[in-house]
Amino acid sequence: MLRWSGIALLGAPLAALPACSGGYDDSPDPLSAMATAARSDAAAARAIGGKVARQIAELRTAQARALQQEVDRANRPAAPAAKPSPAKNMRALGKRLTSAAESAVELIPQASRARAGLLASVAAGCNAGLALDGKLGSPRTQRFPAPEVEELDEETVDALQQALAAEHASLWVLGLVTAFLPAGYDKGLRAAAAEHRERRDATRDALTSAGADPVLAETAYATPKPVKNPNSARAAVIAAETDAVTAWRGVVERCDEPELRSLAVAAMCASGARLTRWRLEAGVKPAALPLPGAPE
After folding, report:
1. Quick one: DSSP state of residue 109?
2. What is the arithmetic mean of pLDDT over 15-21?
3. What's the pLDDT band for 22 if we cut at 50, 70, 90?
């Protein structure tokens, strides 16, 4: 839920959703292989050792737990897990995170709405982990093309309106905190604002093409605490990015259109990485959220 009062996608574009068939699905569950891979990554990170690697171990352990819960719920046969590439250093560990994110994104087109939300959070969490340290590599740069949609149901429109409201709020906050943060933050703030403007415009265009009236920006928004200094400024940005990633997971879970899911996953991955950087600056733990956007 948005706190505000009044308020690049990984890989190729998502393919079209297949038609659903009735009855029990007894095909191998790909999430079982993902859970196995997450446990393997956690073990590799613990073997590497060090502060950042320990954080990756905790992140992947939390993801493995969430994935296994869904596997147990579905009660389908396990899918064979591929042998992971060796991970004896931080860069190799980062490659595993990138691979895990890509695997999650690849499964989203065929996933149910609930599973798609979980997979999107896993992908965003892996991107968040990559932002912990440059030795892991870099988080994937996201792109936000405007989806071409002609008709959307009321539930999807509502989810998009909430995401658009979160984008409006994020842009307002980024403008507000500029006056309270040192000049060294200026470049990052400009990049974040450009990203949120792109997301706002894509969402607004999607709503307009579907015949809906996009929600307008408010003149001001209520931050968790009054912004008076660098600490409260960082807290406001963290709250805005948290609300944004939560709203975009809501889009994933309330739509079936592949292009909309692609936009939402890209937004979640981008916000996940930015959240890590801001949480690092603010000293918030854990710095990288394992499942950005997921209910607490």
Report:
1. G
2. 40
3. low
Backbone angles phi and psi of 287, in degrees to 5: -70, -40
**Residue spans of alpha helices (H) in 75-177:** 90-107, 113-130, 154-177
Instruction: Reply yes or no on whether the pLDDT at 12 is more than 60.
Output: no
Omega prior to 286 cis, within 30 of 0: yes
- For the cut 60, the answer to whether the pLDDT of residue 95 exceeds it is yes
Q: What's phi and psi for 283, nearest 5 deg?
A: 75, 25
Could you tell me the pTM of the whole model? 0.90
Rounded-to-integer distance, Cα 249 and Cα 122, Å = 11
In sequence order, the 6+-apart residues with CB closer than 8 A to the CB of 119 are 104, 105, 107, 108, 111
Query: Distance (Å, rounded) from C-alpha 14 to C-alpha 260?
Result: 9
Q: What pLDDT score does 18 carry?
A: 40
Residue-wise burial string across 85-119, b where 16 or more C-beta atoms lie within 10 A, e elsewhere: eebeebebbbebbbbbbebbbbbbbebeeebbbbb
**Predicted local distance difference test score (pLDDT) of residue 121:** 98
Amino acid 24: pLDDT? 63
Q: How far is CA 110 from CA 5, 70, 272, in A?
A: 36, 15, 23
Cα three-residue angle 108-110-112, rounded to 5 degrees = 80
Residue type, 227: V
Contacts of 281 (CB under 8 A, 6+ apart): 234
